[in-house]
Amino acid sequence: MTDESFGRASFPEPDRGASVSKMALAARIRPLHPLLFLGFVSSPSQSPRQKQSPGQKNRKMASWACSKCTFLNPASQKYTCEICFSPSAASPSSPSSSSSSSIRWSCRACTFSNPSGAASCEMCGGTRTAPSSAFLDLDLEPDELSNPSIGSVFLPLQRCGSKRRGPAPAESDRRDEKVARKDVVSSPVSDLEVSRRMEALGNLIQQHSPDFICFQEVTPNIYGIFQNANWWKEYKCSVAQKVAAESPYFCMQMSRLPVKAFRCKPFTNSIMGRELCLADIDAGGGTKLVIATSHLESPCPAPPRWDQMYSKERVAQAKESLNLLKDSPNVIFGGDMNWDDKLDGAFPLPDGWIDAWMELRPGESGWTYDTKANQMLSGNRKLQKRLDRFICSLQDFKLDSIQMVGMEAIPGLTYCKERKVKKEFQKLVLPVLPSDHYGLLLNISRS
């Protein structure tokens, strides 16, 4: 999990005072029940997210998801993806451009090794930057690594020994294969052993037994897997089965605590169907708590411009969220913020609000997406970001601790990635984690 945010907090039960209950992958409040916040992405990527307009959120869509970059194209875009120009499943098939030549060039964006005759990347559609060269060297100088196109496209996990490419699935199958959100999300959930990865997430939930859980980038497929899990019946879910079946991907909250209401507020500027999800919690003793989650607008660098970072939209969504939450005395806002401090600036904290990680572990990086530490992502270019965060405003509670979870590889599960190492192409066999984001476990207690 890249920064799957797990928050755990304990709250006193309304009728029994301050008895402690457990929480999984979340923030824990000592005298209270644990609260879990978990945001996850099912593939090791920050590939372009599926996009949908707010009006499409709760109905079946005639759109189709690109098999390469996962962009959700409108029905009017029949034959090629708007982002990477890859053909749709309905487009006329064309002969393969693969070459039998042993001379290959490596895509600057996704690092895929292409045959010398290919004018663009077969995987992500990226333009060949040096067509006159028989071999594109990816061992770049330090000043070149700042180029946003470097390693900006991460394709789905591929089981070792499987073929790289195949016929595009039907649209109905695609809908079940996408993590949205994202993402997620953000990328196909059928990438690699989705059932085993969701089982690993379930093990984390059972291990920590949280009172509250927040997910991002849940797909209908993942929703169905969760429904059959042993831990599912212990929680009240914010998303009805019918709504889940009609949504490409969505945020989801689950609670053991008394919930007065679940609410969703679509962002006014989102082209990806993003929204703020809230739960009004009765924490006991007349104490009210609002737990909110979101998946803010995702950066989507892709051909032809590679500059679709959506920073302005992301910052506006963060401000809109905090403005909606500001009147509540106790708020925990956690999720996949997709936040990049260099690009987006400091998170826009109003007076009285704190970033839980910065407050409790100010000297540590807190990278929830880390291609160096997360061996599942080690085949990608270096990228270390604190994408997932807990933002809090608490009058009746205090922060105790925060830690990362979901950092262990799933035993016996690996995938293969081709990468150029010292001018030679090698096939790497890498471990698989529950998500490309690490989770966050937050512990809180009454003041």
TrEMBL record:
One of its GO terms (molecular function) is 5'-tyrosyl-DNA phosphodiesterase activity. GO terms for cellular component: cytoplasm. Residues 161-183 are annotated as: Disordered. Keywords: DNA damage, DNA repair, Hydrolase, Magnesium, Metal-binding, Nuclease, Nucleus, Zinc, Zinc-finger. Transmembrane segments: none annotated. One of its GO terms (biological process) is double-strand break repair. Pfam families: Exo_endo_phos (PF03372). PROSITE patterns: ZF_RANBP2_1, ZF_RANBP2_2. Its main location: nucleus. The keyword DNA damage applies. InterPro entries: Endo/exonu/phosph_ase_sf, Endo/exonuclease/phosphatase, TDP2-like, Znf_RanBP2, Znf_RanBP2_sf. Residues 171-183 have a biased composition (Basic and acidic residues). It is found in: Nucleus, PML body. Residues 100-130 form the RanBP2-type domain. Its cofactor is Mn(2+); Mg(2+). This is Uncharacterized protein LOC105050993 isoform X2. It comes from Elaeis guineensis var. tenera (Oil palm). The lineage of its organism: Eukaryota, Viridiplantae, Streptophyta, Embryophyta, Tracheophyta.
